[in-house]
Queue: 2 jobs
Job 1
Amino acid sequence: MGKFYCKYCGTFRSSVASLTASTCPRHPDGPNRGRHALYEGGERSEYVCRYCGAKRSSIMSLTASSCPRHPNGPNKGKHAPAR
Ligand SMILES: [Zn+2]
Ligand SMILES: [Zn+2]
């Protein structure tokens, strides 16, 4: 079984069903205002922000910090992994 990652926070579960069953602390609408959402890219050694190009070794660390080029405004949202 693979690991299924949330694109907002980097949490992973062994199935998509269990991933999307619980709320996400880094949901873009606000903490726990929505559920985890599947990251559809593969597992990789480095994750790149789709807005600014920041690189981190995990989705969890990438989405932990604010993005200076976020579409809602500078630092108005977190980095988001590209595929
Ligand atoms: Zn999440
Ligand atoms: Zn970014």
Job 2
Amino acid sequence: MAHDHPISRLGRWEGYDVAEDWSEVRGGESVYVIRLEPDRGYLRCCSNCGARTAAIHDLVDRRVRDLPVFEHRVELIVPRVRVACPRCGPKLERLPWLDAYARVTHRLAESVGRLCQVMTIRHVARYFGLDWKTVKELDRARLQRELGPVDLEGLEVIALDEFAIQKGHRYATVVVEPMRKRVLWVGRGRGREDVRPFFALLGPQRCAQLRAAVMDMNASYELEVRRHCANAVIVFDLFHVVAKYGREVIDRVRVDRANELRNDLPGRKIIKGARWLLLKNRDSLRPGEDVQLEELLAANHALFVVYVLRDALKNLWDYRHAGDAARAWRSWYRKALRSRIEPLVRFARRLRPYLPGILAHCRWPLGTNLVEGINNKIKVIKRMAYGYRDDAYFFLKIRAAFPGVGR
Ligand SMILES: [Zn+2]
């Protein structure tokens, strides 16, 4: 009778047949319960040595969740078999569709993992009627299994970047292989000792093979790379330098100007509202915004100067010959000092010691939008995670989002 059961043919619980099935209502949900029974003729696999035997030592009932059918949740009652292994004695059977002590089948775990790539844990848990913790653990185990240990062989260039775990509170560091767009490592903190574990993982030999490290103007990263990787050139990436310029120069000049216009309310309002207009890339301006920008710059000389010098600063990253870039830098630096605009002069003086790291970009012209892209993706993952506090899981999600392309 059991072999003919249509559910048995659909469910394909290898080694088992359906003994009986019924539905019941639990907590307002309809649950379809299927009691399985071991197929007596099936050759079972010893989980310890892999030997095959049909001899059953004993059975223990387990309740296991499977994929839902129609509007019903599905619960299996599985008598788990301990085989009488001729070599090992009584041992749990190894099943191709259910792990030892697992409370969900492989296919349910796989569906959970797939949905966790696009949905929050909370939504996946609600969808399958599973516990939040169970869903997270299933996804964590899947990521761990799929990602495996990171491959660090033949690494020549790395990029280091920091990101906030909680707004303004805790920080973390991500290490990326920019060529293959691959996240290599994520760790809590952004200080020297926080990133040291990465270099320990890399080991002295692979550290010595590293030829360039791209980063923000962050002294901890720089010092730590210099300490471990004697042959690596430090490269400062455009995205960070320009972002810093936006915050420390353009924003400062804009706020100062707004304060000067205390008695000109309409003018003050325009300047106060122009933050994004000024920080945006020129080519991502919307129709009309270009006119607005031109008017703003024409009426505010200091803003005009710092805006033009931002574009000139960006151009430094376009040079492919260090000599040309150095010449362009000297010209930029002279203009900055001559402007007598205080935030600009200060920024230029602070930037000067980093010049070698800026010129190194000519030899290592790496796409800086990668760092920006990873930063944005991390924000999305963080939003999806609804601020829960499991760093290890969060970091796995980041690695999974950048598994690397090509080889
Ligand atoms: Zn065995």
